[in-house]
Amino acid sequence: MPFTEDHKHGGGRDERASSRARVALASLFALALAGCARVAGLGGTAPAPAPTPAAPAPAPSTARPAPAPTSPPSAARPPATAARNWDDYRRLAAQRIVTANPGATYGGPPPEPLLAIPVLEIELNADGSVRRIDVLRHPSQARDTTQLAIDAVRRAAPFGDVSRLPRPWKFSEVFLFDDNRRFKPRTLDQ
């Protein structure tokens, strides 16, 4: 390779080729960024979305709006009805617990053997809201079912006015759990 003037000044030809490659690479990078910006709608000539027509205003109504629900629709329950005695009240409360927990219950006869049988005592306020829940029996296995039963009772509350029933305002419920951790209140199985 003959000695040229370019080599004397630090290899000018190689530097020029390297410089051109850097410029080409920078240009390619800039084009790629511009393409990404267009795809993301950040610039370029992408068309703007057409405005959507406004919905017509609802006609004025004299009806009063419905009150906002206090619980999710999955927990929709029939209104609590007045019970004549504690046996009626326990049956109505058990039905309410099943209605408030549709995916956590089963129907039909209880399986043999049961997974767990927690027993709760539910103390109420005069309006049927839960005042306190005491565990009368923890199961020896699947102890988590006790909390599942407590949560089911809380979801079903309030159970309805108990002020006309004799004190103390409390009742007990036995929860019969199957292997899938679904329950049935024993009151509904009697």
Outline the fold blueprint:
Blueprint (H helix, E strand, L loop, with lengths): L4 H4 L3 H28 L46 H15 L18 E6 L5 E8 L6 H13 L13 E8 L5 E3 L5
Antiparallel strand pairs: 1-2, 1-3, 3-4
Structure explained in plain terms:
- The structure is a single chain.
- The protein has 190 residues and is an alpha+beta fold.
- The chain has two domains: 9-39; 83-189, Fusion Protein Consisting Of Minor Coat Protein, Glycine Rich Linker, Tola, And A His Tag, Chain: A, Domain 2 (2-Layer Sandwich).
- The protein is built from four helices and four strands.
- The chain has helices at residues 5-8, 12-39, 86-100, 144-156; strands at 119-124, 130-137, 170-177, 183-185.
- Strands 2-1-3-4 form a four-stranded antiparallel sheet, with helices on one face.
- Helix 3 crosses helix 4 (144-156).
- The protein is globular and about 40 Å long.
Brief descriptors of the model:
190 residues, 4 strands, 32% helix, 4 helices, four-stranded antiparallel β-sheet, Fusion Protein Consisting Of Minor Coat Protein, Glycine Rich Linker, Tola, And A His Tag, Chain: A, Domain 2, single chain, alpha+beta, disordered N terminus, globular, 2 domains
Mean pLDDT: 74
CATH architecture of the largest domain, by name, is 2-Layer Sandwich
Q: Helices and strands, in N-to-C order?
A: HHHEEHEE
**Would you tell me which CATH topology of the largest domain applies?**
Fusion Protein Consisting Of Minor Coat Protein, Glycine Rich Linker, Tola, And A His Tag, Chain: A, Domain 2
Percent range of helical residues: 25-40%
Query: What is the straight-line distance between the termini?
Result: 106 Å
Query: Approximately how much beta-strand content do the residues carry?
Result: 5-15%
Counting structural domains, the number is 2
Strands of the widest sheet, in order across it, are 2-1-3-4
Largest beta-sheet details: 4 strands, antiparallel
What's the CATH first level of the largest domain?
Alpha Beta
Q: Note the overall shape.
A: globular
Show unreliable segments. 1-10, 28-78
Give Rg in angstroms.
Answer: 36 Å
Helical/strand content category: alpha+beta
Total beta strand runs:
4
Number of helices: 4
